[in-house]
Design brief:
The structure is a single chain. The protein is of the alpha/beta class and 206 residues long. 34% of the residues lie in helices and 22% in strands. It has a seven-stranded mixed β-sheet, with helices on both faces. Helix 5 links the parallel strand 4 and strand 5.
């Protein structure tokens, strides 16, 4: 049985899938229950592989017939050769990495393209919640209390864009989403997407 029926994946995962050419070689890093990988394999005919840290996630992927291994991306990506994949995907995980800059370097070494999605900690609702309540917000995008959250590097859309510039990374495409998963229509207006985007998806290359 597939991990996710066609056309039912999250909005940000669908945007990632739309950036990937059919038949490509794809590595999904931190693939969780395999929803995106399953969609790519069955709907776009990719040669898909995955790395997942949690045993439950790996078991769900393997049960769905996906090629996924248990591993820690921050160490295991070092074992992959240069440009082993057309795309390497890291979804909603970069902010939980101990060394996000090094992880991004490895994504771009292993893949000809990297696709990264991340929550935006400068989103206006988060700012307002902090201002009014004085507490860290808990919502569908950030579902953990501050003392349980895996997020250890609080990054904004602007922060990520600046990091890419410093690293000489080309952003081929970026899409920011509102709280309902709908793409924002602000184009390249960084101030606006940094304020009104709850999350963003980036297509990168060196």
């Amino acid at each position: 049985m597939s991990a996710a029926p066609p056309n039912t994946i999250r909005a940000d995962l669908q945007l990632i899938a739309d950036m990937i050419e059919p038949g490509s070689r794809v590595l999904d890093v931190g693939c969780a229950d395999g929803a995106l990988l399953d969609h790519l394999v069955n709907q776009k005919g990719v040669d898909g592989r995955g790395i997942e840290l949690s045993v439950d996630g790996v078991n769900a992927c393997v049960s769905a017939g996906l090629s996924v291994i248990q591993g820690d991306a921050e160490t295991d990506l070092l074992d992959y050769p240069d440009h082993a994949f057309d795309y390497v995907v890291l979804s909603q995980t970069l902010q939980a990495m101990r060394a996000p800059k090094s992880t991004l370097e490895q994504l771009l070494r292993v893949g000809r393209h990297a696709i990264v999605s991340l929550p935006n900690f400068a989103y206006w609702r988060l700012r307002w919640h902090l201002l009014v309540t004085g507490r860290m917000p808990v919502n569908t995008t950030l579902p953990y209390e501050w003392y349980e959250t895996p997020n250890i590097h609080l990054c904004t859309i602007r922060d990520f864009v600046v990091l890419c510039r410093k690293m000489g990374v080309t952003i081929d495409r970026s899409i920011s989403l509102d709280r309902n998963g709908v793409p924002l229509g602000f184009g390249s207006k960084l101030f606006m997407v940094n304020l009104f985007g709850e999350q963003a998806v980036f297509l990168l290359r060196t």
